[in-house]
Amino acid sequence: MGFEGGFVVDEVDAYALAINLGTNPKETLVKLQATRFESSQVINLVNAAADLDIDKPDREIIRFQDVNVYASPLGCIIGTQVYPPGFVVQGKAFILDKKVEIDCRIGSEGLKLKGEIEGFTLGPLAIRGGKGADGTQGENAFIDFEITKERQCFELSGSVALWDLEAGVFVKAQIMPDPELEFNFELAWSDLIKFQVDGKLIKPEPADRELEKGGAGANTGALANLEDADFQLHALMEQRILTEISEAMQKWFASAQASVDQGIEEAKRKVDEAKLEFERKCEEAKQEVKRTQAKFDAAMEAAQADLRAEEEKCRREQVENEQYILEEEKRADEHIRQAVAILDGKKRDFQDDMDGKKRDLAQKRRDGEEAINGKIRDLQGSREKLQRDFGNAIQALESARARVNEEECKWSSPQGMS
User: Fold this and answer.
1) Please, which residues bridge with residue 47 across strands?
2) Phi, psi of 173 (to 5 degrees)
3) How many other CB atoms are there within 10 angstroms of residue 20's CB atom?
4) Can you tell me which residues the record assigns to a coiled coil (predicted)?
5) Which residues pair with 120 in a beta bridge?
6) pTM reported for the whole predicted model
7) How many Å apart are CA 56 and CA 38, to the nearest integer?
8) Which of 67, 124, 323, 331 has the most C-beta neighbours closer than 10 Å?
9) For all residues of the chain together, what is the average pLDDT?
């Protein structure tokens, strides 16, 4: 299944698309092109694909331009259009209006990778290109990597600065068409310490190249065997710490010497004035101590006199309280004895009364039992008399009923009726 065309989202964002899917994964094709690809367009695409409603940011943070994504392992044909094999990722990204560009191709020619970051400064952070072997510094950081039949090269350049610390690197290594090797490493800590190393491969003379078979093969051998290669190296280490310290110490000693020469007399005068002021304050402090001591002695004597008076008063009150306690204890003991005698008398009266009531209760219980027994005997006699009387009445009633029956029989028979 193959498709080639484009689509539009919200009648604003247009995209070119080609895709081929089949049973053979090697014939797969994916191609996407967009001349401008902003963050709002990404949100539009996500909203349209997932049926969402994501709000767009107030400020554009990132946008893409000239986006080209192409992937086809073995190439394919859609209609009359022929798509060669290869992989391509191209595009420019602008992050806060700073450009980042990438171009990666894998095809019939080989591998080509190029990336570039536009130099920028953000607060204390600064990114720009590195310094080459000749000392010139590029504006943008970049990477260039290529492996083709005509050229095999790797090149990296960039530097990062954060406040007073800066680190930079530049490397260029090439095998074809001519062997080259250049590098530059630099580390700087403000203006006090700097360290830099740069080098360059010295190419062999033309006479040496002719010893090998073919120019390109000789060049490749010269770079592959680095042990026999010659390099031009340059190293620099610069530090100004000791100089800065020496200059600062000299300025300090000069300032101290000037201060000493100009201020000795002033210092003596200030010492004398301070001494007089100290003695005056010491005398005032002594007088104040004497006055305070006199006040303290008077207050102490008055306090001691009050303490002695309070002690005498407490002693008298203690004697009076002890006598009062003894008398109260005697009165309390007498009241207790009287209360105990009264309580014993009341206990005896209560016991006597309780014993009398118990005897009366026993007598009444015997009288009650006797009366109950008499009533029971009377009731038993009445019951026996009733039974006798009721038995005679029943017999008389039966006799009367028998006579009535006899009379009825008589009156019912014919003889009786005649």
Assistant:
1) none
2) -125, 125
3) 19
4) 264-329
5) 127
6) 0.47
7) 11
8) 67
9) 78
